[in-house]
Amino acid sequence: MTMTRRSTLAGVAAVTGLALAAGAAHAEPHPRIRAAIRALEDAKNDLEHAAHDFGGHRVEAIRAINAAIEQLHEALRFDR
């Protein structure tokens, strides 16, 4: 029984290792840039739905966020 359990655990470990290696080979390129885009989109959404205008800075902040998102998308397109 112990030998079978060890064999099973070894098999599971081997398959898990192969799956992790395959996942790493197909990892999303530039995960931090993509995370930055998501964070900027979240901030933009917060600003767009805010109850006030942040002392008149909301509109300009949204413009700056849009420009930053576009530049990050351009950077990702350039890398292809």
Provide a brief overview of the structure.
By secondary structure, this protein is mostly helical. It has helices at 2-25, 31-48, 58-78.
Explain the overall architecture:
With 80 residues, the protein is mostly helical. It has one domain (2-78). It has three helices and no strands. The mean pLDDT is 82.
Summarize the amount of helix as a percent range: over 70%
Helix run count: 3
Q: Indicate the structural class.
A: mainly alpha
Indicate the mean pLDDT. Answer: 82
> What overall form do the CA principal axes indicate?
elongated
The overall number of domains is: 1
Strand content: under 5%
Q: How are helices and strands ordered from N to C?
A: HHH
Count of extended strands:
0
Cα distance spanning the termini:
53 Å
Largest sheet: none
- Evaluate the radius of gyration: 23 Å
Low-confidence stretches: none
